[in-house]
Structure formats: structure tokens, C-alpha cells
Task: inverse folding
């Protein structure tokens, strides 16, 4: 196993070393290290994001197919749990079945808020704008469809997260794909015990890489850039002071994450609703002002979903961009959210699966659709039609959509980006910490050490040009889906038995609501 993991360990080491080197003044050494790192990272990136081209601006990463196909198959296997389980999930979030004496660290609502804080972010603001600009308004329809199917994936992985979690000696909880891949597969398929252990280690390595990169440096970098834009740009007070901004943000992050999941959950349970309300209220204001344009916008979205318009890559292009945006936004199948949901107070694993299926609904069906509707109504995407995704700054498209009605919205958007980025860092610090504890031992030293490293990377992310390191970290996040989805396929029968048992006991009255 060691030889098979060596390339990934080397790549992870490169991820840790490269940013620190890039932070130094430009020199021959800096370039030499970059020349060394790039050949190590690029093959991994190219493998994870291997794509099939469907035109000059449209290609389909196979990892998206991997995620979308899994979501469809799991939806069918669990009898459309994404529809029939949503009502019970709402009752659980409300606390109807919550017993404070159950094992765990956070409530159903707090677990959901923490997981949402890791997915609701720049993808909802910038990613949707890019999808519509390149794929057309019809991409919104397929984004919603993929989001609805993704609810079943979240249900499955978060049920398993609780089912195979572990209670540590200090009372804390450890769970997520690392544990159900190792322990779940060993229990359900003893002959695949070694495979399960390998998949668990692979997942944990990728989770650390994704945590430090896409869940940390990218967020810090984008928050800083947006703050620079609204404080005067290159001549403003923040220009050239990324390290100072990063240091201030690192202190705020440290203040929250040192307290562990309970501290993170307390902040996210207040921050996520607050930032979502700000964003959605602004969106509703735009829609109400242009209420007479709404029917035409919906008609454009529906007709565009099946349009052969070559400007948007035809029907295949629209379909791909919608599915890709949903997969990249709600992270259903990545497995990250199962780590947060595992800490919930419950004795019924299915309950957290039912809570978790709300996550893609809120992230993709509600927030992403709101963004898309505002962009289509305002037609802010039209100047970007025909450009490639790399040529489009998605935040600019979304900002223009809102600014046409609310002149001061760029300031609100900057606040939303800061809150989204900050909350994402909180969630991913926990994901990375749990992955590190799985690999190196569940001790205070490992936990605190990882948190300090994470805070250091907040400063680095604000101050440097991320380059290939950021691309690699994105690849690590989506590489998490490879072992995770294999585990979901192998353990789906376990979840189905739990599901049938749970609903039978709810129906018989054995499981009672505390509100009755």
C-alpha cells in the first residue's frame, strides 16, 4: 500500500511546501521549486479532471459524470427519498425528535448549518454566473435537476457517517467517509477489508489537501480580492497588504476553530442563516422590482434547457454546464459533509441522512436558482456570451446583475463573499482536522497542530499567487469522491435496511415526536 500512496503523499508534501516558497520574493530558487512542483501536481490534476470535449467552450469532466450517475442511481435505489423524506427531515431540523441525552456534540440544525457553511460560497455567486454565461439560461434547469438528485447522495453518505462514527475517550465524535470506508466495508464485506482501508486512507489524504487549498487558501484569496475591489482597488488601503489582511482573518478563524466542532457549530448556526438571508433578500428585491420580467425569465430557462443554440454549445453544452455547476456547488458525493453531520446528537443514523438531504436543496435549488434568476432577468450575462469560462469573472457578472437595481450592492456582495469565505474555512478546518486525526492519531497534539497549520495557510492564501497549487487543491476535493462513491455503492444496502426500519418504527409510534 505504501508504494501506491507514495505519489499522493509526494503531491501533498508539494502542496504544503509550494505556497511558502511562493510567498518569498521572486528568485531563481522560487522558479526552480515551481519547476519541480508543477510536474508532480499536473498529472494528478489532469487525471482527476480528465474531460471529454464537446466544442470549443464545452467539455465534460468525467468526475461530474461519476457524481451525477451516482446521485441518479441512489435516488432510484432509495425510492426517491429526496422527495418522500423531505417532510421528516424538516421535522428533525426543527427539533421535533431531538433528545438532548443522545450521543453527539451538536444538534441537527447545527450540523446542517456547519455542513452548509462548507458548500454555500463563491460557487453560488460566481460559479452560477459562469455557467449561465457559457451554457445559457437553460443551464439553470439542469442545475436544479442535478441538485434534486444530489439530495439522495447526501442522504446516503451522512447516514453512513453517523452509522459508523466513533466516540473518543474525551467525549468528542469522529466520523465521515474515513470510518465508513474502513469499518463499514470491513463489516459488510469482510473480503474487501483491505480495499476499504486503502480507500479510507486515500480519502483522508485528499481531504487534507482540499482543506488547506480549496477550503482555505482559495477562500482567503477571493475574500481579500473582493475587499480590495470595494476599498479603492490597486490604490486602496488594502492593496499590497494581503499578508496583513490574512493575519487578521487567521486570528478570527483561530478564535472559532480552537474550540472544536461545538464552537464552529455555534458560529455557523448563526452565520449561515444571516448570510443567506442577506443574499436572498437582495435577490428578492431585484425580482420584485422586475416582477413583470419573471415569467419571461422562467420561459427562457425552460426553453433554453432543450435549446440547440450553438452560442451556448447546443443541448449538450447546456446540460453539461448545469450538471457541472450543481456538482461543484453542493458537493454531493464528495463526502465532506458527512464529517460534520457525524457529530450530531442522535441514536438513529437515518435521522441525519434525512436532515442532510436538505443541504443540496438549500444550496442548489434555492440559493443557486436565486442567483441564476437575477442574472437572467438583468441579462448581465449577455456581454460574456461566446467567451470561455477562463475569461469570465463570475463575481463581476453577479455584481452587475444586482448593481443594475441596487447601486450599492457591490458592497453587500463583498460582505457576502467575506461571510461565505469565512464560514467555508470554518467547516473545512474541521474536515481537515478529522482527516489528519484519522491518519496520525486522534490526539490533542495532532488536532491543535493541524489547526495552527490551517491558520498559517489563511495568511499564505491572502498574500500569494496560488497558481498550480490551487488547481491541485481543487483536484483533491473532487478526488475525494472516487473512494467515497465506491463506498456508497458497497454500503447502500446497509442504509436501505436502516431506512425501512426507521420509517416502520415512526409509523408504528415506537419513535415519537417530542412535540406531540
Result:
Amino acid at each position: 500500500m505504501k508504494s501506491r500512496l507514495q505519489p499522493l503523499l509526494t503531491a501533498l508534501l508539494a502542496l504544503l511546501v509550494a505556497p511558502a516558497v511562493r510567498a518569498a520574493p521572486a528568485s531563481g530558487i522560487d522558479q526552480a521549486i515551481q519547476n519541480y512542483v508543477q510536474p508532480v501536481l499536473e498529472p494528478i490534476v489532469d487525471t482527476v479532471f480528465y474531460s471529454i470535449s464537446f466544442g470549443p467552450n464545452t467539455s465534460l469532466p468525467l468526475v461530474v459524470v461519476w457524481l451525477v450517475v451516482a446521485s441518479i442511481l441512489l435516488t432510484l435505489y432509495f425510492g426517491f427519498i429526496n422527495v418522500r423524506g423531505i417532510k421528516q427531515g424538516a421535522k428533525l431540523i426543527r427539533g421535533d425528535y431531538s433528545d438532548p441525552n443522545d450521543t453527539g456534540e451538536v444538534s441537527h440544525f447545527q450540523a446542517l448549518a456547519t455542513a452548509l457553511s462548507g458548500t454555500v460560497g463563491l460557487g453560488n455567486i460566481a460559479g452560477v454566473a459562469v455557467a449561465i454565461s457559457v451554457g445559457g439560461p437553460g443551464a439553470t434547469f439542469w442545475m436544479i435537476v442535478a441538485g434534486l438528485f444530489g439530495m439522495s447522495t447526501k442522504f446516503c453518505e451522512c447516514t453512513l457517517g453517523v452509522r459508523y462514527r466513533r466516540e473518543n475517550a474525551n467525549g468528542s465524535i469522529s466520523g465521515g467517509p474515513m470510518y465508513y470506508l474502513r469499518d463499514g466495508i470491513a463489516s459488510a464485506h469482510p473480503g474487501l477489508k483491505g480495499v476499504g482501508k486503502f480507500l479510507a486512507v486515500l480519502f483522508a489524504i485528499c481531504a487534507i489537501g482540499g482543506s488547506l487549498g480549496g477550503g482555505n487558501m482559495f477562500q482567503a484569496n477571493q475574500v481579500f480580492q473582493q475587499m480590495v475591489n470595494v476599498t479603492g482597488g490597486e490604490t486602496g488601503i488594502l492593496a499590497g497588504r494581503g499578508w496583513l489582511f490574512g493575519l487578521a482573518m487567521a486570528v478570527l478563524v483561530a478564535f472559532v476553530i480552537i474550540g472544536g466542532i461545538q464552537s464552529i457549530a455555534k458560529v455557523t448556526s448563526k452565520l449561515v442563516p444571516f448570510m443567506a438571508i442577506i443574499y436572498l433578500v437582495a435577490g428578492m428585491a431585484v425580482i420584485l422590482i422586475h416582477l413583470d420580467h419573471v415569467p419571461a425569465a422562467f420561459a427562457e430557462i425552460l426553453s433554453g434547457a432543450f435549446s440547440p443554440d450553438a452560442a451556448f454549445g447546443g443541448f449538450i453544452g447546456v446540460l453539461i454546464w448545469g450538471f457541472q455547476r450543481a456538482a461543484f456547488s453542493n458537493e454531493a458525493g464528495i463526502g465532506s459533509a458527512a464529517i460534520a453531520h457525524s457529530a450530531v446528537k442522535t441514536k438513529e443514523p437515518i435521522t441525519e441522512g434525512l436532515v442532510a438531504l436538505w443541504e443540496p436543496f438549500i444550496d442548489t435549488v434555492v440559493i443557486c436558482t436565486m442567483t441564476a434568476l437575477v442574472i437572467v432577468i438583468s441579462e448581465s450575462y449577455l456581454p460574456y456570451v461566446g467567451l470561455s469560462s477562463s475569461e469570465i469573472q463570475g463575481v463581476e457578472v453577479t455584481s452587475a446583475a444586482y448593481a443594475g437595481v441596487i447601486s450599492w450592492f457591490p458592497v453587500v456582495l463583498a460582505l457576502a463573499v467575506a461571510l461565505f469565505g469565512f464560514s467555508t474555512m470554518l467547516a473545512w478546518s474541521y474536515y481537515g482536522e478529522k482527516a489528519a486525526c484519522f491518519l496520525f492519531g486522534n490526539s490533542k497534539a495532532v488536532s491543535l497542530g493541524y489547526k495552527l497549520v490551517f491558520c498559517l495557510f489563511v495568511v499564505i492564501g491572502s498574500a500569494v499567487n496560488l497558481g498550480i497549487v490551487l488547481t491541485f487543491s481543487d483536484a483533491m476535493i473532487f478526488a475525494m469522491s472516487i473512494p467515497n462513491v465506491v463506498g456508497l455503492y458497497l454500503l447502500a444496502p446497509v442504509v436501505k435496511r436502516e431506512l425501512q426500519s426507521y420509517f416502520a418504527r415512526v409509523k408504528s409510534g415506537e419513535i415519537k415526536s417530542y412535540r406531540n
